[in-house]
Every structure is written in C-alpha cells, then in structure tokens.
Amino acid sequence: MIIKLFFIIIFNFIFAINVAESDTTKKIINHDWKLNVFSIGKGMIPIGQFENNKPFKAFALMSMKFYWLKEFQLAKDMSNISDRNRSFWWLLMLNLYGIIDSYVDYHLKDFPENEDLKKDKKE
C-alpha cells in the first residue's frame, strides 16, 4: 500500500502542470547552434553555421570532418589503432569546435560592430 502511494505521489509530481508558468508569455528561443549536433553522423553538414550565415566556415568544417572520417574508416579497416584513435579525436574536436563556434556566433550576431569601444579611454 505504501509503495502504491509513493508511486502515485511521484507520478503526480512528474506530470503536474504549473499554472503560473502557463499564464505568462513564453519567450521564443532560437536554438540554431544546436543544429551542429546533427552533424555528428555521416552527413557531416554543419547546419548551425549555415543558419548563422557562415557558409565558408561551414564548408571548411565539412571538408575537414570528411577527411578525418575517411582517415578513421581507413585506419579502422586496416586495424591501425593509433591512427584510428587520432582520427577519432580530431573528428570529435572538430565537431565540438563547430558546436561551440556556432553557439558563440549566434549570441554575437546582435552585437554592435561599428561602436567605438575606445571612446571611454579618451575621456
């Protein structure tokens, strides 16, 4: 009986609806930088870079990822563990770099570019 009561209480907490949150206006959040996570597969297309209007960076990342993926597959077929591990780490670092770079580019796109930042030092 106590176990059933415990599960009922846990179930109610899990599926409870917070009325205060549903009445407020919801902020629209754009998660374009998360689209780079999808590039971890064989497609290797850094979608987040395209969403941030950085096609050159996207093609550069895509070509480097493609190269290291081919190196990984070649080393895997030849049972060369050290080359396989090196290729894997390069591929992982390129994916993480693409995700972090896309995240930073997304958050800096509204940053003013022409503002004179040295103005305060002269005064």
Describe the structure.
- The chain has helices at residues 2-14, 19-23, 47-51, 55-77, 81-108, 119-122.
- With 123 residues, the chain is an all-alpha fold.
- It has a domain at 32-108.
- It is flat and about 60 Å long.
Keywords:
123 residues, mainly alpha, flat
SSE topology:
Layout: H1 2-14, H2 19-23, H3 47-51, H4 55-77, H5 81-108, H6 119-122
Task: Give a quick rundown of the structure.
The chain is mostly helical. The chain has helices at 2-14, 19-23, 47-51, 55-77, 81-108, 119-122. It has a domain at 32-108.
Shape: flat
- Could you give the order of the helices and strands? HHHHHH
Percent range for helical residues? 55-70%
- Range of strand content: under 5%
Mean pLDDT: 74
- Our count of helices gives 6
Number of strands: 0
Q: How far from one another are the termini?
A: 75 Å
